[in-house]
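note to self — DONT lose this again. spent like an hour looking for the file last time. sequence + predicted structure for the chain T wanted, 190 res
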Amino acid sequence: MKSFTLWRVAAFTVAAAALIVIGCSDDSTQPKETPKPRYPEATAPEIVISNLLLSYKDRNIEQFEKLLHADYIWHNQQGETPEFYVRSEDIDITRNMFLAVQNLLPNANLWLDKLELELEPPRPWQPVIDIAGVSCEGCFETSRIYLVTAMTSGGAITYLPTDLVQIFVAPVDVNGTTVYRIIRMDDIHW
């Protein structure tokens, strides 16, 4: 009878240990979910728009810069001066707006209480074979109504256009993956 009791204690101990080990084990058959990046690589043109809006919301100039193609140009409405901004100029303007809304510009008179960018409504992307007469293989364009709200300290609205913007994206290779970058934006009065 003594051996039967010892056998029961041993069986109980082994069973308990097995339950603890199984309960604490890492179930490697379940795939681990990788968290989605806040700024996914723009493998489709619409991701460029999502990342653009998010860069404004986050005041993230590095992400904004990443969206612009090396040959990027912003074209102002016809008759406005300057006629266009190159990539570096647009980045500087946007950086200053981001700094202004964060109250980081040296001149407090230039601080902004509010800065928002809206692009609406979503319109389908259309393939294009050239942009302003320059061949562009694999490029796409869309037109969106855009609204920029910038309010100076104290609430005076300084800029509130509601116009149409034509956005062109071009494919680039990033580490063997095709991604899209904004190559041109045309501000169109409508």
